[in-house]
Amino acid sequence: MKKYYAYLVTSLLLFPFCNRAEIPTVPLTELVPAQKHQQANELITHILSTYHYKKTILDDTLSGTILDKYLESLDQNKSYFLKTDIDEFQQYNDKLDDDIKGSDLSPAFEIFKRYRQRVAERISYAHELLAQDFSFDVDEDYLFDRREGPWAADKTELDEIWRKRIKNDVLNLHLAKKSSDETRDTLLKRYTRTQTSTFQLDANDIFQAFINAYATAIEPHTAYLSPRTSENFDISMRLSLEGIGAVLRGDSDYTQVVKVIPGGPADLSGQLHADDRITGVGQNKDGEIIDVIGWRLDDVVDLIRGPKGTVLRLEILPEGTGPEEPGKVITLTRNNIKLEEQAASSSVIEIPGTQSKIGVIDVPTFYIDFAAQAKGDDNFTSTSRDVRNLIAELLKQDIDGLTVDLRGNGGGSLTEALELTGLFIEKGPIVQTRDASGKVEINNDPDPTISYSGPLAVLVDRNSASASEIFAGAIQDYHRGIIIGEPTFGKGTVQNVIDLNRFIKNSDEDHGRLKTTIAQFFRVSGGSNQFTGVIPDIIFPTVEDASHQGERAFDNALPWDKVKPARYLAASAPVDNFSLARKRHEERIKNNKLFQLMLDEHRLAGENSEKKQISLLESKRKEERDKILKTKKTIQDEIRIAKGLPPLPDDTDIDIDADPDSETDEAESIDVLLNETAQILYDLVVPDNVPTMTQHTVDQPNSIKSDNNL
Q1: CA 449 to CA 443: how far, in whole Å?
Q2: Number of domains in the chain
Q3: Domain for residue 648, yes or no?
Q4: What letter does residue 340 receive in the DSSP assignment?
């Protein structure tokens, strides 16, 4: 879906930052392409046309796509441009390819100037509306997600769209019990900031937006990094990490959390999650929370960054929370990213009524301490080394099977993906790589020894990506174990970052960098993980439609492809028994109350996230909100009861992200999906017995460094 796509994406960790001085408004006369932009454009065009993995001709067809993506990057929700503007811009529809080849960047700048004009008009109109009073007893709806809709035909139609937008913003604050003066003050600041941020965009920003429209028209993981964005990229790749540990991107008027980094304050707090939206930022425990809806992503990042040990408060709309629901405020303390928290860890799930135990190894990322390795330290930490040690400890406890948990593992070191796979197979190819020239290279198991040869399950979800997919795909192809969970993300490509300054001589200007796709991974069976991901042997019903998730959400992602299968010898996992295990799984979860409650939570979150319009009738709005909160409380109460805890008091403020076990240590946290995975593996090991199980932690190793090569 479009909501998963952002052209002005900033994917970076949030680290220490000294607040820069207020940026002045950029005069209109300075919005012209500079020589460095033309030089960078020539080089980028050459690289993308010659060396990109996807051979794409810069022609009239691509020109139209570039125009569409550029317009969408500026006005994603179709809130500023008029249809007459769009019709006028069609003069560039089949000419941008020629303009790019000739380094004529003027169309991009002319379009942006019109956009700036339209923003000023809209914000002026918003200020006029805020001087009026709104009636909330009129039964009308506001379509807040207009990305798939048409452009406003004229000023009158756009005025009506903005009237409802302003009315909705006022109603939100009214329902949050803000006074009329507080509401007007908050919204005046919000809209003024939107205009200020737009008027602070300079020639570098315009060039980056336009070139990224070109780059992402080819493939979604290709992007131009301006000098400022390059600096942020450098920060995100350093091993000495401080901050809150989150990756953000702009999504319409919101700042959306893409990923929470394992071991960071956000992760350790359990309060911030992927797909949460940040609406306000406050410094210290009692500092004013600044409304950041409509802000530039870079400016929100600047507010969130800060020195180690300082307190940050974020106002967020949690994932699955509809716009009619109140947000919540969380408090985090900026700190070092605790890399030891990214270490693999182990636990054991015991099967009641039997002597059977299923070992579990949680692998949150594929890490390696490159610095220690480079120094010749024989004891450098890595995923494969830690997992090898954990396996040895679990074997001492006579486990009957092993589950490798890769949920949320977005990848990391390719070397470690190979090494980890090698712990479970004796020898053979693990992954194939095809470069832009079509040459295929086979990456083999680097170690002929096997650490574990028993029954194996691999648990994955929609956020298991890249290196995780290499490991899971190899285990599946070798029939070495059973894959359980959700279809994985589907990222099977390799990117390289090129410093453009290396190729432009006699210039003191910084020309930025280009991240470009150079290769694709293929499984030993010949198929790619790209786009489709790894399809589990047993799929959990937590995803009703995987076509709108991960790589499949990008409208121009590289398609699934295949190469010649490598020569390998499959193992002897009981794949013929998978259908029996699947049948037992489906029968079991029908009567598993916790599993069904978890599915109810998923459905409720999905329904809320799919909403595109909302009522502006106050009584109806309250009714909708109360219904959602009541449903959430019912689900939380049922979960607590199933865990042996009392239901929440009737006057409890409902928090969808609250931990039901936070009040007591009497009951252990129950990981429903992990327990069901262990039950499935047990069914394969002892197919005539189908009891339930409990889980407890065995070991928590420490000391880790990490990298992100995939």
Answers
A1: 17
A2: 3
A3: no
A4: G
User: To the nearest whole number, what is the mean pLDDT of the chain?
Assistant: 86
In a shared domain, residues 524 and 408: yes
- What is the band of 254 on the pLDDT scale with cuts at 50, 70, 90? confident
**Do residue 216 and residue 262 come from a single domain?**
no
Nearest Cα residue to 71 out of 56, 40, 93:
93
Q: Does 466 qualify as catalytic in the annotation?
A: yes
Residue 535 DSSP label:
P
Cα separation, 190 vs 165, in Å, equals: 13
Active-site entry in 75, 267, 291, 477: 477
Which structural domain range is residue 381 located in? 339-574+694-699
What is the predicted pLDDT for the residue at 339? 59
Question: How far lies 321's CA from each of 131, 625, 663, in Å?
Answer: 30, 10, 24
Q: Which one of 78, 491, 632, 705 is the catalytic residue?
A: 491
* 702 vs 242: CA distance, rounded Å: 18
User: What's 361's domain CATH number?
Assistant: 3.90.226.10
pLDDT in tens, 502-527: 998 888 889 999 999 999 999 999 99
- Full-model pTM: 0.85
Domain check: are 194 and 300 in the same one?
Answer: no
360 and 372 inside one domain = yes
For the segment 596-613, what is each residue's pLDDT rounded down to a tens digit?
Answer: 988 988 888 888 888 899
Residue 155 lies in a domain: yes
For residue 698, the model assigns a pLDDT of: 37
**Domain match, 318 and 365 both:** no
Q: Which of 73, 79, 197, 466 is catalytic?
A: 466
Task: Return all residues near 615 (Cβ < 8 A) that are at least 6 apart.
Answer: 139, 140, 141, 142, 324, 621, 624
